[in-house]
Amino acid sequence: MKKWFVLHRKEWLEMTRNYKVIWIPLIFVLFGLMQPITSYYMPEILKNASNLPEGSVIEIPMPTSGEVLAQTLGQFNQMGILVLVLAFMGIVSSERKSGMLKAILVKPVRFSSYITAKWMSAVLLSVGAIFLGMLASWYYTVLLIGDYPFMNIVKGTSLYLIWIMFLLTFTVFLSTFLKSSGFVAAFTLLLSILLTLLTSLFEKYMEWSPAQLTNAAASLFISGKLEGPLMLPLITTVILTALILYLAATRKSSL
Amino acid sequence: MELLEVKSLTKSFGKHVAVNDLSFSIEEGRCVALLGANGAGKTTTLEMLASLQKPTNGSISFLSVEKRDYREYIGYLPQYPVFFPWMNAIEYLVLMGELSGLSKSKAVARANELLELLGIADAKKRKIGGYSGGMKQRLGIAQALIHEPKLLMLDEPVSALDPVGRREILELMKLLKETTTILFSTHILHDAEEVCDDVIMIHKGELAVTASLSELRRKHQEDVIIISADENLDAWAGSIENWNIVSKVISTNNKIEIYVKNVAEARNLLLVEITEKKLPITKFTVGQTSLEDLFMEVVGR
Ligand SMILES: Nc1ncnc2c1ncn2[C@@H]1O[C@H](COP(=O)(O)OP(=O)(O)OP(=O)(O)O)[C@@H](O)[C@H]1O
Ligand SMILES: [Mg+2]
Asked: Which keywords fit this entry according to its UniProt record (chain A) (predicted)?
């Protein structure tokens, strides 16, 4: 257990030295800010951008706070996932490539400690970054558009984070198996896009899908209550995450 | 006592057999050289012993126990050591120390001690990314020693070093072998002869020779007299070839190597010859062949 913390601490030191602890949260905060701000100024932006005849009036209904927050979530679900996957695609594969994996595993360290310490650092940083991003979004939404209950933010974001954890675990998993970080990113993004797409296309058959958690979080933001399937996707996601992590941590073959 | 015993160790990569049915053992307190040409399977063997590769076949027992995790008792220097370039030497050694099971304070003390011993204490606060190859090699040895292992395994510890560095590391190994069992690989026989007690020679993945250095010397070393001269002495070299005290004569340019059976007698006879024939010699050396020849014999052709 002590060695696990040593490894975990090393991950944080590395993420500090390469500024990941700064730029990842920063990107999420920026995405978070942008949504309420662009929604608020959208009429002005459109007015300036288009060459409408003098005197014409643009009427765009101002979205509700909940809608803006759900849009932020949508933004996180595209650009945010891209950022996280790119940031963590090499988490294991780059160390295997450089030979650092061997340098560490020649010491009496369990492979599972090595993987789970890395996994935990990626999860904690991502959770922190997304919470900060949502917090920024919430703050500006309240400021510019209208009041919104803070507890809903916490609930919705937590739900959404389970989906993110699933994708992060998948990233770590692929990173332990694949040589190329590029493939890790490509396959994880493919999985995320496929799941999201299939879930919206075949809603009936995809009630179990982890991507349902995003929908659940969005509906919570918009209407204040949970609509659609929740327990089933929650259970499958948790089980799948645990299973993938287990497979990654018990991988035995060549280093 | 037997520290490590290897029985019919085999490793194949697909069809290619890198290590084939290798058996040997290492006694505690010995310094053992693993000799072999490029591609002989030295690195593969050492990585299997360090549990970095799984043997295709065969067994390894450490202190008479088979299939145990003995990583806490070994220190390993890879052929091309790598580090976290964004760490400095102290941070790296402390990390490796803690991963080896030392407490933080013990690891710090040990790290400083080793940096001093290896002569890179001046650079200990510098990022490893900026280290030279030789400094990395030293840091690699330091990380292998951090937890005072019972068995130190070094994969070509001096190949990457300049003559001065090579000298220093060989001296260090002589010092270390007083307290630690050492297994090191090399393709330079001269280095092996200088520090090791035992030799394991492998060729194309198979065991060729395993013996103590003194045994090898007794069996394979010959007395040799080397004569250098101002002019070509090929003709004369031919004439002494059939002396029955001479076993072999090799003449190249202005140098003649004469392998002899009885060095004292041969020396006198040769000196008499030289004075009688007024041969213009510049150098007359009496010595012994190195084990290089044995190595060439095993590896060669
Ligand atoms: N991962 C691998 N896949 C395929 N073949 C390999 C692999 N590792 C080693 N080999 C082969 O096994 C043989 C032995 O390699 P090894 O690295 O052990 O040699 P070595 O004695 O350390 O050589 P050198 O002195 O050049 O370091 C070589 O023919 C090499 O090509
Ligand atoms: Mg090698």
From this structure: Membrane, Transmembrane, Transmembrane helix
